[in-house]
DNA sequence: GCCCAGGGGGCTC
DNA sequence: GAGCCCCATGGG
């Protein structure tokens, strides 16, 4: 077995679940839209909204920045908090048009952490959303942390509850090779595990990491 | 009917 | 700076 616990866990998860094929989107812009729409909602709800936007040929910065609010709300209603998310989408698109001529490529063409700070400055884009955009749309190596990551690694006894986002991210990034495809697959596998067996209570049925879990009641 | 999803912002103390 | 509440759909 790997002597690096972070790599060892990755290998166990990959062996159990295989490649997750994230991010399921036809373009980088679609990935960004999905990243905003998936905030606190399951992916199935997002798929409907993306499908609606595609059908109306609205999946572009220009189209989204100009769309009528009521129409936008109706199309993305399935993603919950649709008024807020509609505004966040428009806000991002208008920023992209104003400063980068609507080109994600130009926006992304800078240092990872410079890009991170810039995106965090936009309203409605928090750490997890920004890191998802950087990893899955810009395809730059940054580790995406979420509630599952924290919960699972707490149960493995590797971290404690009180760790903050940046510290947890740094822990992964300083113990793993800086590899976009590894980070891509790792986060997706964590989400898979979280949804599959590790929701709110420990000691849940079959788990590929059960031999490592510190909280399973025997 | 209940719970919780691939969060983030704003307010209070 | 932690602890709340708000937002307000859909599937199990």
Would you kindly provide a written description of the structure presented here, covering whatever features stand out?
There is one protein chain. 60% of the residues lie in helices and 0% in strands. The chain has helices at residues 5-17, 28-37, 43-55, 61-66, 69-75, 82-100, 104-108, 112-120, 127-137, 147-155, 165-175, 180-196. By secondary structure, the chain is mainly α. The chain binds a DNA duplex (13 and 12 nucleotides) through residues 22, 34-36, 38-46, 48, 77-85, 88, 123-129, 132, 144, 146-148, 187-188, 191, 194-195, 199-200.
Distance between the termini: 24 Å
Query: Number of DSSP strands?
Result: 0
Radius of gyration from the CA trace? 18 Å
Give the helix/strand class. mainly alpha
Q: Summarize the helix and strand pattern as letters.
A: HHHHHHHHHHHH
Helix content: 55-70%
- Total of DSSP H or I helical runs spanning 4+ residues: 12
Tell me the overall shape: globular
Mean pLDDT, nearest integer?
93
Strand content: under 5%
Q: Major sheet, described briefly?
A: none
Low-pLDDT stretches are: none
């Amino acid at each position: 077995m790997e002597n690096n616990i972070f790599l060892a866990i990755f290998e166990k998860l990959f062996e159990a679940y295989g490649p997750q094929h994230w991010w399921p989107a036809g373009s980088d812009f679609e990935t960004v839209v999905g990243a905003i729409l998936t905030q606190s909602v399951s992916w199935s709800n997002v798929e409907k909204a993306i499908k609606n936007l595609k059908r109306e040929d609205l999946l572009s910065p220009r189209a989204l920045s100009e769309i009528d609010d009521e129409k936008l709300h109706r199309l993305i209603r399935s993603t919950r908090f649709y008024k807020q998310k509609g505004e966040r989408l428009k806000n991002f698109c208008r920023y992209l048009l104003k400063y980068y001529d609507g080109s994600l490529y130009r926006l992304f063409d800078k240092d990872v952490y410079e890009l991170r700070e810039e995106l965090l400055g936009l309203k409605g884009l928090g750490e997890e959303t920004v890191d998802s955009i950087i990893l899955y749309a810009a395809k730059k190596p940054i580790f995406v942390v979420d509630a599952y990551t924290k919960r699972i690694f707490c149960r493995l006894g590797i971290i404690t509850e009180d760790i903050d986002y940046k510290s947890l991210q740094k822990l992964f990034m300083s113990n793993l090779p800086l590899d976009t495809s590894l980070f891509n697959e790792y986060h997706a596998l964590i989400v898979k595990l979280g949804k599959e067996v590790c929701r709110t209570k420990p000691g849940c049925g079959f788990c590929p990491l059960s031999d490592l879990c510190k909280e399973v009641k025997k």
